[in-house]
Amino acid sequence: MTSLLPDKFTFTQSNLQTYVKCKYQFYLRYIEHFLWPAPATDDMLAFERDRLAGSRFHQLVQQLLLDVPAEALVRSAENDPDSRVRAWFELFMDSIYKQLTGNLFPEYTLTANLDGFLLSAKYDLLQQNGVDYTIFDWKTSRKKPSKAWLQAQLQSKVFPLVLANQKEFYSGTPEPAIRMVYWEVTEPEKPIVLECGSEKLKDYRAELSSLIFQIKTNEVKDFEKTEDVQRCRYCVYRTYCNRPSMSVGVDEFLSSEYLSIEEDADILNGD
């Protein structure tokens, strides 16, 4: 059976999460390549402001980890048009930054061949201490998610699995010990830590291989609309569906459990 996706299509946590949330949205975005026709909220400027502030914060952290003098970066943060960026950066330097040791690889992208399919992950930071590897992810969302919610997200499965399949990355070492740390600006002293042992990695591999195989072998009719119509309230593709418009206010949108800022930013940016 010929796949609707190109042979070298690269899967990521973002496009896989889109498929899990709504198969039809995945079809519109990644197969038909439709542009998003409607803003995600009635006040798109607020969403864009949050997204850009988070992006600038990530850039400051990356530069700090690449040994750009902290004093210069603090001055840059002080001049940022959004005061939250300075506050986030100061929180970062006063908390998790002091705990970073070993070999550090900021904004690092890895791609793995998973049973013949390409799977890619872009890490905010990879930390190596001997055979111990820690994946860090910086979150600037307004509401801190629960550990259980994060554990269920595909990011928490894709990221460690891609790393575990990089034999050349830790050539000559024993099986690596991998964990994932989510650092949240809302609780900088209480990062959420997820351990990724060998049994979990086996489960992740089986789950993701099955999911990707399903996507690659789907016919058009298989890309169905989500049954959870509440998700449609936050969908930038909602006007393509024969469902009532349910746009929401920006505060509700940005604090919703249905929203992944990174995922929706990818859609808005055309990634």
Structure, described:
It is a single chain. This protein has about 270 residues and is an alpha/beta fold. It is built from 10 helices and 6 strands. The protein has helices at about 15-20, 25-30, 45-65, 70-80, 85-95, 145-150, 155-165, 200-215, 250-255, 260-270; strands spanning about 10, 105-115, 115-130, 130-140, 175-185, 190-195. Strands 1, 2, 3, 4, 5 and 6 form a 6-stranded mixed sheet that branches. A hairpin with a 7-residue loop joins strand 5 (about 175-185) and strand 6. Helix 3 runs antiparallel to helix 4, helix 3 runs parallel beside helix 5 (about 85-95) and helix 7 packs across helix 8. The longest helix is centred in the N-terminal third of the chain and has 22 residues, at about 45-65. The two termini are about 25 Å apart. Residues about 265-270 have low confidence and may be disordered.
Topology:
Elements: E1 10-12, H1 13-21, H2 23-31, H3 44-65, H4 70-78, H5 83-94, E2 103-114, E3 117-129, E4 132-139, H6 147-152, H7 155-164, E5 177-184, E6 192-196, H8 198-217, H9 250-254, H10 261-269
Parallel strand pairs: 1-3, 4-5
Antiparallel strand pairs: 2-3, 3-4, 5-6
Helix pairs in contact: 1-2, 3-4, 3-5, 4-5, 7-8
